[in-house]
Amino acid sequence: MYLRGSMRINDAGHLEIGGCDTVQLAQTYGTPLYVLDESMVRARCRAYRLGFEESYPDAEVLYAGKALLTTAMCRIVEQEGLSLDVVSGGELYTALAADFPAERIYFHGNNKSRQELQMAVEAGIHRVVIDNFYEIELLAEVADACAQDVSVLLRVTPGVEAHTHSYIQTGQDDSKFGFGLASGAAAQAAKRCLESGRLVLKGFHCHIGSQIFDVTSFEAAGKAMFGFLEELRCETGFVARELNLGGGLGIRYTKGDVSMDPADYAKRLGGFVKAEAEANDYPLPRILVEPGRSIVGEAGTTLYTIGSSKEIPGIRTYVAVDGGMGDNPRVALYEAKYEAMIASRAAAPLAETVSIAGKCCESGDMIIWDLEVPQWSSGDILAVFATGAYNYSMASNYNRLPRPAMLLVNEGSADIIVERERYEDLIRHDRIPLRLATSEAAPRHVRRA
Length: 449
Hints:
By secondary structure, the chain is α/β, with parallel strands linked by helices. The chain has helices spanning 22-29, 38-55, 71-79, 89-97, 114-123, 133-146, 185-195, 215-236, 262-279, 293-296, 330-334, 423-426, 434-438, and strands at 8-9, 15-17, 20-21, 33-37, 59-64, 83-86, 105-107, 127-130, 150-157, 179-180, 199-205, 242-244, 286-289, 300-312, 316-321, 340-342, 352-357, 366-373, 381-385, 405-410, 413-418. Helix 8 packs parallel to helix 9. The protein is globular.
């Protein structure tokens, strides 16, 4: 089994993360339980930051908050010298509540509301990444009302189809995101911003998708972007000072995934940008990248308690746990695949193959098909790896299941950074109209023989 970050198997034969016995964590804090390896998160942040400092100093690494955003995560990102990419008013509010420096926040999103844009402008965030023509006009109105100039990037769809699941491709022509290159929309949007009295165009952004292993996809997008920059310079004289090439670097979910080291990615991307700029006789732009999954994905582990099982002779054995698609919807959404081990029997030899089912009332609520496990019993703790990204951030209360707690573990210490939801939290915003509370109950129908 591939152990990540600070993971090890201790003398009790249990999985340990950040110096903490996962079985003891489950007993103390309950399950399902998200566990985040702090040292691994910090190491990934530093690998990106130092990688670009060495290969392309004029670069900025933005952590993509949509992967996992809590106030504690904001604090770690700030301490490690990264900037922050948010995509909603809620994410922006979280960052500001954590005292994240507004001058290091970038705001994305394909349908930002007037209220969200006003919050961003009033907070003085660094950049708004404009996604569409509607937003150009809306942001200009907000900027006028606030009597503030707003520095912006334009999101461009470069027409590159990344090799990943179709639901997480974002750079192809047929995308809900950004201004298309082929249609001429990107050039038109740039001209509108240049003519605006309050919007200050700093450069351009593109993002081609997520969970990408083929770096040539990033280079293809970069080549398309440089072609556009040169055409725009020839037509308008505008020289972009910033080029955001997005994120999307893949991680190891299963043994078939071969991830790239952030430092190697920085070296290759930096070298590519230098070569393209030289080939186009274009001033070297400031590079921005937006890693999210590749910073927190493998640092997260979800602990579950095994409950019921069902053996179908000659077909399979289902083993059910106390969580599922409520805390990890990626399997149902993307047919995502995971690795796992029975944390309470981590040193035991493998003995059988089972399929791990969630407890939601859906046949599609499966976590792992065909997992090799040792002899097990109800009450054992299952650890599912690489659940740091897009698990908590996409969790729901489907079937009225409370969302799990999250722990930050490091050097033997475990701290709650997200409290477990309680049943009373599920009805906190429910309201019964007065007419229902005071009306008489309808008469029951009597069933006759």
